[in-house]
């Protein structure tokens, strides 16, 4: 018995992608942007087909992701940012609302949004996830978004 399998090919040729990147913690976010750009280009995307939108921080990302995803101009969107825990509960609120908002934006628009928002306990953890020991979560978000775009094309 054969199982019909639908899987996304990691081919970014011809795709229009928007990246929403927070300016807050930009020393980390810039590495996520670089990782995502490198990944997309190595998989066939043209730099001219990628739009970078900078927002103040993680809390502002969901609205901008939603507008871009609903615009019909992009096959996929990437949400890139870094929230690093401080001494107040602010971290918990920002992370929860940004995560929830980005998921809602994706579901409402029906456009894949790659989740590249780091939520770390320390600067060291953020550095590890932005291209050091733990890989580059910007590239991983680009891969997930790309694969989802290609799966949706087959449904």
UniProtKB/TrEMBL annotation:
The keyword Oxidoreductase does not apply. GO terms for biological process: riboflavin biosynthetic process. It holds the Pfam family DMRL_synthase. The keyword Transferase applies. InterPro entries: LS (IPR034964), LS/RS (IPR002180), LS/RS_sf (IPR036467). The active site is at 90 (proton donor). This is 6,7-dimethyl-8-ribityllumazine synthase. The lineage of its organism: Bacteria, Pseudomonadati, Thermodesulfobacteriota, Desulfovibrionia, Desulfovibrionales. The gene is ribH.
């Amino acid at each position: 018995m054969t199982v019909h399998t639908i899987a996304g090919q990691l081919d970014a040729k011809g795709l229009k992608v928007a990246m929403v990147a927070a300016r807050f913690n930009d020393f980390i976010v810039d590495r996520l942007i670089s990782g995502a750009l490198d990944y997309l280009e190595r998989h066939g995307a043209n730099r001219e087909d990628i739009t970078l939108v900078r927002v103040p921080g993680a809390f502002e990302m969901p609205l901008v992701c939603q507008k871009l995803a609903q615009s019909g101009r992009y096959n996929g969107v990437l949400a890139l940012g870094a929230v690093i825990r401080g001494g107040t509960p602010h971290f918990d609120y920002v992370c929860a609302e940004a995560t929830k908002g980005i998921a809602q934006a994706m579901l409402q628009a029906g456009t894949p949004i790659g989740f590249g928002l780091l939520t770390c306990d320390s600067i060291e953890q953020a550095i590890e996830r932005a291209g050091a020991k733990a890989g580059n979560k910007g590239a991983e978000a680009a891969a997930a978004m790309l694969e989802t775009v290609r799966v949706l094309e087959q449904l």
